[in-house]
Amino acid sequence: MKKYITLLLAVCMLASVFTGVTSAKAVEISDNQMQQLLKSLSIMQGDENGDFHTEDFVTRAEFAKVAVASSQWRNSVSNVSRISPFPDVPYTYWGASYIRVASQNGLIKGYPDSTFRPEENVLLEEGVTIALKLLGYTDADFGLSWPEGQMSLATRLELLEGIDKSVGERMQRKDVMQLVFNTLDTEIKGTSAKAISAFGYTILNDTVLIATTNEDSSVAKNHVVTSNGTYKIPEYFNSAVIGLKGNLVIKNSQDAVAFLPENSMQGSYSVYTVLNNDVLVYLNGKTQALDIASDTTAYKGSLKGTLSSFLPQVKQGDSISLYSNHLGDVEYVIIGAEKLKGPYTVKSASSLAENYGLAENTVFMRDGKLVSESQIAVNDIIYISSEMNLVWAYSKKVTGVFESALPNKDNVNSIILSGVTYNIESSDAFNKLVTGGVCELGDTITLLIGKDGGIADVLTNSGDTVTSYGYLTGTGTKEYTRDNGNTYTSYYAKIATADGSELEYRTASDYKEIKSSVVSVKISGEGTKISRVSAPSLSGLFDYETMTLGGMSVSDDVKIMDIMNTSVAKAPLYTVVYPQRLDQVFISSGKVLWYTKNQKGEIDTLFLDNITGDGYSYGLVTSVSGSYTCNVAGEIKVVAGGNTTYAVSAGSAARFTMSGNSVTSISALTKLDNKADSFTKGQVTADGIVHYISDKVVCYRRTNVGQWQLVSLDDLVGKTNSIEFYYDKSAKAGGRIRVIVAY
After folding, report:
1. Is the distance from CB of 272 to CB of 280 less than 8 angstroms?
2. Can you say whether residue 379 is alpha, beta or left, with left for phi > 0 and alpha for psi between -120 and 50 degrees?
């Protein structure tokens, strides 16, 4: 199909950007766009009101004028000539000069009786013949059969695209516009230059319009970056063509004046994250992988590369647009910098749509989950993508003591809060933390954390006592430095919160006696006080489908910590788990160490006593001879026997308690006695009982020389002969198959 010139100043050709995939639709050109181009080139004009009267028929004299205006001889028309070009065209006739120039340069001919008949309507074959001559073709190219030779050549050159006329029919102004339009977009005979080059224009083939200053602030105003250079554009440039590939028309080697698109946008998406060298995006409130080849050509700002080369720079909220060829295959992608408005702090429970001018179909994501607008809470941090009709909300808050400002209080870009450093990501947070702000060193404050883990806003606690809960992982004394450079020593306590964050608090007392227990942390003007909490009375089945524990409702965004070690004498050991992991697990009495509820009465934090066992390491004991040689997930560890004896033998699958890189205890796993009936990547069924496989299962194959080779689960799946499975406890109690051995 003919590639049509699309004016950069034309009306919008593309549909609005959607979060879903749009169909690969050919870009069309409107009559108005053609009129604007022909008018700008002084080839055809409308009346005083701009009306082109496209349905009017065109006379031979009018077509002669159009032909000359489209040619290299357009500036040789004289208004004072006294030469009559044909007997029926006196020099006083309005079109005499155009007809004379067209005749002298071989564009037109008269009839055998030497007349021109200027007031007769031009026929399609006559107009086509003149268009071919404008392109440098002569009678020798047409053959002896007229007009079949001319029409055949015009068809091959695609000059008739968009014209609904046949030989012998009169041409209307809309037909003439289309024919001239097609001619300008056709190469002159024997050259690679298109007819439009006669006007001083150059066409750059296969050019991608990448960005203006709207897409990339580094691009100069009124300029467009393309795959073939940067060019100046008018202020009324149509940004809807950004991203398309086609032929760019430039003038004076610097001004972009028109564009000939040859592809279309397949879809535009909001990026959620990059995972395994692929881009996860949001579509209708759900994440999906785009599944694009990593070597696909990509543009980001003014840079060109491959998709894989830009992936490390892609952030949540960035846009990624896919552009396809005529077959629908992705040809290249354009990665746009995030166009998120925010961060904003939600101040009230009133309508976000009204407060922030959101569209009715806006999608709300809170902490990575699809939610309704009503589930966005006060003091959530939100970011708005107007283009994607998407709101990202984040609920994480951290309370602690404002210990230090970096590099200093007068020019703060990060702070230390209870031993942890946080960067500042908003002007609101900066103004509260800088000298003269509402936050002073030593204050207890609450940080509202944004999407990149930085401080989006700060809440002052105004002397109120703030209570939080966590797992006490460390105590002792430490030397600190004041802002004036002086040092002092203070007790400290490290607390792991239910989401896995570790905070460090300066304390007036040493809390080593309650280390490795779940505690409450109360922060007030009097300092930080830590107390052990008593286990509540709660037990029962955890049901993920209904989100309940023993009949009590559990929040969709519950934070769960499973603690492996509550002994003061041993190193703390814990892991953060997701609620899916606990589905259909029965949690017995005393195994819930602590929980808290949200305003709806749902459990929103949960501390468990070694339900999953996921915090341990697993592997094999390969030899026992005074000491124990262990293969822990491929790493060899030697444990001295000494006075400690472990109930394991060589070849035993085992659970290992680790302290750093050292093994501190060994416990044997239980072998699945019954032969497996089925073995998939997720579970093993034996004697009708389902045993789930840990997502971190360790697999070995024993070699002919008695060595243990670490292999992947995929290497063993489906095989049931000469395979041994080892688990720590039943699935209902939270256990998993931890080790698989093939012989």
Report:
1. yes
2. left
Whether residues 41 and 174 fall in one domain? yes
Query: Is 80 exceeded by the pLDDT of residue 648?
Result: yes
- Tokens (6 digits) for 228: 């073939």
**pLDDT confidence of residue 16:** 25
Measure the CA–CA gap between 547 and 26, rounded to whole angstroms: 48
Among residues 345, 425, 366, 397, which one has the least CA distance to residue 503? 397
Residue 525 half-sphere exposure toward CB, CA atoms < 13 A: 5
Give the domain-ending residue among 155, 173, 197. Answer: 197
Q: Are residues 73 and 118 in the same domain?
A: yes
Q: Is the pLDDT of residue 730 over 70?
A: yes
CA 560 to chain centre: 29
Helix boundaries (H) for 51-207: 60-69, 96-104, 124-134, 139-142, 148-156, 173-184
Distance from C-alpha of 616 to C-alpha of 23, rounded to nearest angstrom: 50
Distance of CA 562 to the CA centre of its chain: 33
Structural domain includes residue 131: yes
Tell me: do 356 and 438 sit in the same domain: no
> CA 230, CA 213: separation in Å to the nearest integer?
12
φ, ψ of residue 140 in degrees (nearest 5): -65, -20
Q: Residue 499's closest CA among 387, 613, 426, 397?
A: 397
Q: Do the Cβ atoms of 466 and 445 come closer than 8 Å?
A: no
Q: Same structural domain for residues 324 and 440?
A: no
The C-alpha atoms of residue 165 and residue 173 are separated, in whole angstroms, by 12
C-alpha span between 102 and 72 (Å, rounded): 11
User: And the tokens for 555?
Assistant: 């929040």
In order, the DSSP letters of 353-395 are: HHHHT--TT-EEEETTEEE-GGGPPTT-EEEEETTTTEEEEE-
Query: Dihedral angle at the C-alpha atoms of 222, 226, 231, 237, nearest 10 degrees?
Result: -40
Query: Do 591 and 609 touch, CB atoms closer than 8 A?
Result: yes
> Residue 260: what pLDDT?
66
Same domain for 319 and 432, yes or no, is: no
Q: Do 146 and 37 belong together in one domain?
A: yes
In a domain? residue 94? yes
Find the CATH number of the domain harbouring 310: 2.40.50
Summarize the confidence of residues 251-260 as an average pLDDT. 81
Q: How confident is the model at residue 725 (pLDDT cuts 50, 70, 90)?
A: very high
Half-sphere exposure of 579 (CA within 13 A, CB side): 20
Tell me what pLDDT residue 23 has. 29
Of 688, 673, 695, nearest in space to 575 by CA: 695
- Looking at residue 25, what is its pLDDT? 29
End-to-end CA distance of the chain: 64
421 shares its domain with 359: no
685 Cβ contact partners less than 8 Å away, ≥ 6 residues apart: 676, 677, 678, 679, 691
SS3 464: coil
Q: Check whether residue 84 and residue 62 sit in a common domain.
A: yes
- The backbone region for 284, taken as left when phi is positive above 0, alpha when psi lies in -120 to 50, beta otherwise, is left
Please, is 274 exposed, middle or buried when counting C-beta atoms within 10 Å of its C-beta (0-12, 13-18, 19+)? middle
Domain that holds residue 315: 264-336
* 566: helix, strand or coil: coil
pLDDT band at 223 (very low <50, low <70, confident <90, very high): very high
Q: Tell me if 611 is assigned to some domain.
A: no
DSSP 509: S
- Burial (0-12, 13-18, 19+ Cβ within 10 Å), 405: buried
Of the pLDDT bands very low, low, confident and very high (cuts 50, 70, 90), residue 483 is: low
Nearest alpha-carbon partner for 309 in 289, 333, 327, 331: 333
Q: What are the angstrom distances between the C-alpha of 171 and each of 37, 55, 126?
A: 20, 9, 9
The per-residue b/e assignment along 482-495, b for 16 or more CB within 10 angstroms, e otherwise, is eeeeeeeeebbbbb
